[in-house]
Design a protein that fits this description.
The protein is an alpha/beta fold and 265 residues long. A hairpin with a 4-residue loop joins strand 5 and strand 6. It holds the Pfam family CHAT. InterPro entries: CHAT_dom (IPR024983). This is CHAT domain-containing protein.
Length: 265
């Protein structure tokens, strides 16, 4: 439920949650406490190791899944999103950009990265939410045919990451659990990244448009990268500012901008 978008959305009204508060969600009180502890541990580890790496995993196109009639639609904004982020991040951090990576390639880089950005499709498994995840790809067989590879909630939550601070999941429905029998539990891709050690996770409650994904991520990183490490806990503020800028351009259409949410501290 997008409580952060509650209110009257007109050009003259300030009677909305966006004007009254900075919103941040948590799967549970226990998860919030874990995120707070991880934020402190990650900060100490980063200072000790001078670790400052960012991962960008981009999937402008995706192969068809085993039970799909058609391949997921191309994400036409992913290449622009990747380039805009690279322009912003490379002066500040070592950035590893992977296009069409496999889950194993991503997991290897996650072990040492501070920020992870995913520009790809997300998918929900109605019967088993732990099998929900981000759609990547891999090659199989002697002809190296490309098949869908899924970075699942289960695989992510099995990680224990030392340096992780921010995961940005620019993918559809990463903060959504569609399994009716688990409706009172929060098992989705965002919570998987929190369990893995990311104290800040940005996700989407429903699919976002290509242009909105590009603009929100660009504005978000332009703010985050201006701050020193002592301001890392202002991630929710950065997301709100980025969304507010997009909201101002299309204030009467919350479905175009209210899907972006912050989970964590």
């Amino acid at each position: 439920m997008p409580f952060h978008a509650a209110g009257i959305h007109t050009e003259t009204s300030k009677e909305s949650a966006y004007y009254k508060m900075i919103s941040s969600y948590t799967p549970s009180i226990k998860a919030l406490g874990y995120a707070q502890k991880q934020a402190k541990r990650a900060q100490e580890a980063l200072v000790a190791q001078n670790a400052n790496t960012m991962l960008i995993a981009a999937m402008p196109t995706s192969p068809k899944g085993p039970n799909d009639k058609n391949a997921p639609k191309p994400l036409r904004g992913v290449e622009k999103e990747t380039q805009e982020i690279l322009i912003l991040t490379r002066p500040h951090t070592r950035t590893i950009a992977l296009t069409h990576p496999s889950a194993d390639q991503v997991l290897e880089v996650l072990e040492t990265c501070r920020i992870a950005h995913f520009a790809c499709h997300g998918t929900s498994d109605y019967s088993d939410p732990s099998n929900s995840g981000l759609i990547l790809q891999k090659s199989v067989g002697p002809d190296e045919a490309l098949v869908q590879d899924r970075l699942t909630v289960q695989r992510v939550s099995d990680l224990r990451l030392r340096y992780a601070q921010i995961a940005y999941l620019s993918a559809c429905s990463t903060a959504e659990n569609k399994a009716a029998q688990l409706s009172d539990e929060v098992i989705h891709v965002v919570s998987g990244f929190q369990v893995a050690g990311f104290p800040h996770v940005v996700g989407c409650l429903w699919p976002a448009g290509d242009s909105e994904c590009v603009e929100v991520s660009k504005r978000f990183y332009s703010l985050v990268l201006k701050w020193d490490q002592s301001a890392i806990n202002e991630v929710a503020s950065a997301l709100q500012a980025a969304v507010m800028a997009i909201r101002a351009e299309d204030i009467s259409m919350p479905l175009n901008w209210a899907q972006f949410v912050h989970y964590g501290v």
